[in-house]
Every structure is written in C-alpha cells, then in structure tokens.
Design a protein that fits this description.
InterPro entries: NPHP3-like_N. This is Nephrocystin 3-like N-terminal domain-containing protein. Keywords: Repeat. The chain is 59% helix and 6% strand. By secondary structure, it is mainly alpha-helical. It folds into 3 domains: 167 residues, Rossmann fold; 90 residues, no CATH class; 64 residues, no CATH class. It has a 3-stranded parallel sheet. It is elongated.
C-alpha cells in the first residue's frame, strides 16, 4: 500500500479524475500491535479528519461550527465519540460537494482493526462491522474515492468481492517478483548449490513453489523465510531438512517475528533488544552508531575516539558489527 501511496501515477490519475477541482488525500494504516487509536474506527476518523482539514483549513468552521453547543461548551479535555466524528465527517463531505472538492482516502490493513473497540451503546456495531458500515457511508458521496487493503478474510470478500477490475490480488501480482528473488538468492548461495548438485532427485522447483504459496504475496515474509533456510544450511541441514524447516515457519508475519526471536540464544537476548530499539529510534544510520554497537563494553571510550578513527578502523567496525548483529537478531536487522 505504501507503494501505491507514493507512486507518481496515482496523483496523475487522481487529477485526471478531479479535473480542475482540488484533491484532498489522506491515509490510514491500521496496526494491530499499536495503541487503540492505531487500530480503531475512532482513530481512523480522527486521522482522516485531521489530514483533510490541514489541507483545506476553510472546512474547519463547517465541520466543527464554533456556535454548536457541544463545541462552545467543551473544555480542553473534551473527548469525541465515534458518533460525533461521523457527523463531523459527513459535514465535511457535504460541504466538500458545495465547494466541488474531491477526496481520496487510502486505508490499509482492515483485518488489523481491534475487535474489542468499546461500543458507545448496545445498538452500535464494532470492529470490522463498524468499519464496513463506515465505508458504505463514504461510498454514497461521488466526490470521494477510497482504496482499501486487507488480507482475504471472508467478511471483507463478502462485502467488497474478490474479483473484478476494482480488485488487485497482491499475491498474484508479486508472485513472479518473489519467485525471481527466491531463486536468485538460493542459487547464488554456493552451499545450497552443492546440495542440489549432490541430490539430483530433489524437486527444487517444488520447494520454490511452497515458498511462494506460503508467502501469499508478502515479500518481507519471503526474505525472512529464505534467510532462515540459508541459516539451516549453515547448521548442516540437508535439502529435505530444509523443506521440513520451511513447513515449521508460521505463515503470519507477526508470528514469524516471534518465531525468529525465539531462536535467539539467551545470552544474546539483551543485546538483540538493544539493537532493535536503536534501529527503530535511529533514522540517520550514522557510522558513529555502528561503532557504538560494535564497541560493546568500551563504547564510552570508542565514542570519544570515533571521530579520529581511520578508514580501516571504520571498515573493521562495520564488518564486525554486522556479524554481531546477525548473531543476535537472526536476520531481522542488516548492516
């Protein structure tokens, strides 16, 4: 979905659809591992409203009229309800019709919505059903286009179908690319090639197809799975053992992470946690950070010294740290 969001062709098509009218775009990515606002209808509405109003502040007085009793009497800690947000959303779209605006919303991960989201009264829907009802309301407005993505769960396939021109099935679109990556990565590994040469009866193509079927279009899953198989070769696994190893891997990406972390040796767990946290918090990839990771117990001295390190010392630090991170994180981080 990120690829669609950032693809230049998307905006060309949106402007072709909108003509001379202004297009307001907003995105929301449901995330099951996040806070409630990251996986709920409440969070979806708040995020889409916020992004839309930032792009067209003139809508604010219509969406949240200052003379409305609920706003004029509201305190700083006022909490919106889903109902109030839906009403505000409809006001935004209704006024958008009058202003000849166009809206495009990209909503990813419908299957990651929290089913336990609190209902405001017993007649309310929650979770997936509330989301589906909300999207139905969206679709009543011709000035709005919505792009949705989800795993192929029955509830969403029933509502939106699973075939047709309005659908993209990721696992079919990416299968050739995933196969190219899988074959290329395995075939350039000399140890894997030696195994294939030794056992001509092994059905290599079947192994590749099993990887593709299990991936279900998720490229990251394939990368992790192939790395896992190659590490099995380092552990002395034969071809049939690799096939069994593949069968033990979880299909779900989050469970795959758990599976990989469960294989980290106990003495490396603390370091693995430290490295993962550092990678999550650092976006600059500064070489000083790599030296810090490499230096272990001597990090203070190394950090003081790192500006005067020679190129050879930097290269050595980079290579050594890569080995250490790989040992601790089992392929979840790369240098």
């Amino acid at each position: 979905m990120r690829s669609i969001e950032t693809h230049p062709g998307l905006y060309k098509l949106l402007h072709k659809w909108a003509g001379d009218n202004k297009v307001i775009t907003a995105t929301y990515y449901f995330w099951s591992a996040g806070q409630l606002l990251e996986k709920s209808v409440m969070g979806l509405l708040r995020s889409l409203l916020h992004q839309s109003l930032l792009q067209h502040p003139g809508l604010l007085e219509w969406v949240f009229p200052i003379d409305a009793p609920e706003w004029s009497m509201a305190s700083a800690d006022y909490e919106f309800t889903v109902l109030k947000l839906r009403e505000a959303f409809k006001r935004m779209l209704n006024h958008g019709v009058r202003l000849q605006l166009r809206f495009f919303f990209l909503i990813d991960g419908l299957d990651e919505i929290d089913q336990r989201e609190k209902k405001e009264d017993e007649s309310d829907l929650k979770g997936q059903h509330a989301l589906i009802e909300l999207v139905r309301d969206f679709s009543e407005y011709p000035i709005l286009r919505v792009c949705l993505s989800s795993r192929p769960w029955n509830i969403f396939e029933k509502e939106y179908g699973c075939e047709g021109r309005s659908h993209l099935q990721l696992h079919k679109i990416t299968r050739n690319d995933i196969e190219t990556y899988t074959r290329g990565t395995l075939e350039k590994d000399m140890a894997f090639q030696e195994l294939i040469e030794r056992d001509k009866s092994f059905k290599y193509g079947q192994l590749v197809n099993e990887i593709l079927d299990a991936a279900n279009g998720v490229f990251l899953w394939v990368q992790l799975a192939v790395r896992n198989l190659l590490s099995g070769i380092d552990d002395g696994n034969g071809l049939y053992e690799l096939q069994e190893r593949l069968h033990t891997l979880p299909f779900d990406l989050h469970k795959m992470y758990d599976h990989i972390l469960s294989t980290v040796e106990p003495e490396y767990l603390e370091l693995a946690g430290r490295y993962l946290l550092m990678a999550a918090s650092d976006t600059t990839h500064d070489l000083g950070l790599m030296v810090f990771l490499y230096s272990g117990k001597q990090e203070s001295a190394m950090l003081t010294k790192h500006e005067s390190l020679t190129l050879e010392e930097y290269v050595h630090a980079h290579i050594s740290m890569g080995k250490k991170i790989n040992a601790c994180c089992k392929g979840l981080l790369e240098v």
